[in-house]
Amino acid sequence: MEKSLKKQSFFYKADIFFYFFFLLVFAAFSFFGFFDYLEIRFYNTFSSFKDAVHVYWSFSYFALALIFGVVLFSTRKCKISLQILVDSVLIVLISVLPVILLKFFNIYIEFFDSFLFLFCSCFFCLFCRICYENNKRNEIFGIFSPYVSSEAVEEIIKNPDLVNSDGKKLVASVLFCDIKDFSRIYEQIDNPSLLKDILNEYFSAMNEKIFEQNGSIDKISDGKIQSIFNYPVSLREHAYFACLSAINMKKAEDDFNKRHMILGDLPFEFRSMIQINTGNMIAGDFGSEYKRNFSVLGKEVDFASRLEIINELYDEWIICTEETWNSIDFGAHKNEIAAKRLGKVIYEGKERPVQIYSILGLKKELTRQQLEEIQVFEEALKLFENNEFEKAAEKFIFANELIPEDKTALAFAERCKKTSHGNADEKSDFVINLTEEKYN
Fold first, then answer.
1. 41-83 tens-digit pLDDT
2. Contact status, residue 158 vs residue 251, Cβ threshold 8 Å
3. DSSP secondary-structure letter at 264?
4. Which of 384, 380, 385 is nearest to 397 (CA)?
5. Which of 46, 236, 261, 275 has its CA 20 to 30 A from that of 116?
6. CB-based contact 377:342 (threshold 8 Å)
7. What is the distance, to the nearest Å, from the Cα of residue 124 to the centroid of all Cα atoms in its chain?
8. 410 in Cβ contact with 400 (< 8 Å)
9. Rg for the chain (alpha carbons), in Å?
10. What is the pTM of this model?
């Protein structure tokens, strides 16, 4: 990205042009004696120094030009504030040094040409540098503002190396948010303008919750949001922030539904299913020469998108993989988020079935009854794994009685009953093969 900015910006190389331009211009002025009158006036003010050692303009001029050239090229990639400081020191030095040398060391240097060269070069070089930095800032903001928060854009502006357009491997968390029954929305809202406004408001509310946790938006299409955590801005606890975003997205969704159901412009409440996975991915600037997009690719990304099947099967809203949950329920955030185990899934490239978890929210925000239901559900699942199917079914039914809207518990209870009646294949239904799409 930095390379493309250099090519596109005239100002990146304009400071070099002005350096050599003023170098030649003031050298020519000095050669033809344009500054002789000023030099004589300055020299005559110190009448007691008639016998001073005279250093001609050519020596001081090209010595200063060499020094300033070294400073200019060595500070091009430094902060503008440092470049301003260095240039200011040089200007003050070239203004004071001739007086000090003449007064205390009886050495007279012709310096007006050097001073004017340095002043004009510093001014125009700084002007070009500021224009270039402003262009770079605007371009970076234009590229990334649709995908990341303004705070994240500022980080990228300060450190463009955060974004590697050549591609890189990294461990990240990817979040997919799918509006359930999305096709029904545009089938039942006939007004295109109203549909656009409603969807834009909804996606803006969802994106805001992602941006709050420093996530980035990969793409939005056909009622789906794909977001990334740990790219382009690095996040040490990216899995936790992805999960927190999902929880807050569901809260924002509830607020959106309440507001629009009162207005009466929604045919039904929007309900999104969110899937999160963590793993190795390839991040980079993908696309054609006409349109590119910073995104992530890999089996872990595809795996996360396919987990929508599990959300539909278990009638859950937020689910994550074992890898994500192990990263969430760890360290400072251990026991902060409430979740319950569901079944396992088989997916191509995975050596063993992957445990899936349902994220229910922050523990401090759940009721005592909800927390009890999680415990009862886990006890039932352990009984099932120990082949105690009848006891497991009773526990699952009890979990549903605690939280009647929890349809997952009833589905598990039904499978326990089928298994206890001699249908051994039902137990394998807790392990779903996403590769072959064998699920009920």
1. 655 665 455 566 766 656 666 777 777 777 777 777 777 777 7
2. no
3. T
4. 380
5. 46
6. no
7. 35
8. yes
9. 34
10. 0.71
Write out the two tokens for 352.
């063993």
Question: Helix (H, G, I), strand (E, B), or coil: what is residue 88?
Answer: helix
Do 304 and 174 form a contact (C-beta atoms < 8 A)?
A: yes
User: Look-up: residue for tokens 């120094």?
Assistant: 49
Q: Is the peptide bond before 232 cis (omega within 30 degrees of 0)?
A: yes
* Pairwise CA distance, residues 416 & 427, whole Å: 8
Please, are residues 127 and 274 in contact by the beta-carbon 8 Å criterion? no
For residue 313, the cross-strand partners are none
Rounded Cα gap, residues 12 and 6, in angstroms: 6
- Cβ atoms of 149 and 211 closer than 8 Å: yes
Task: Give the pLDDT confidence of 384-422 residue by residue, as tens digits.
Answer: 888 888 888 899 999 989 988 888 888 888 888 777 665
Residue type at position 8: Q
Contact present, 173 and 239 (Cβ < 8 Å):
yes
d(CA 257, CA 266): 8
CB 320 within 8 Å of CB 297? no
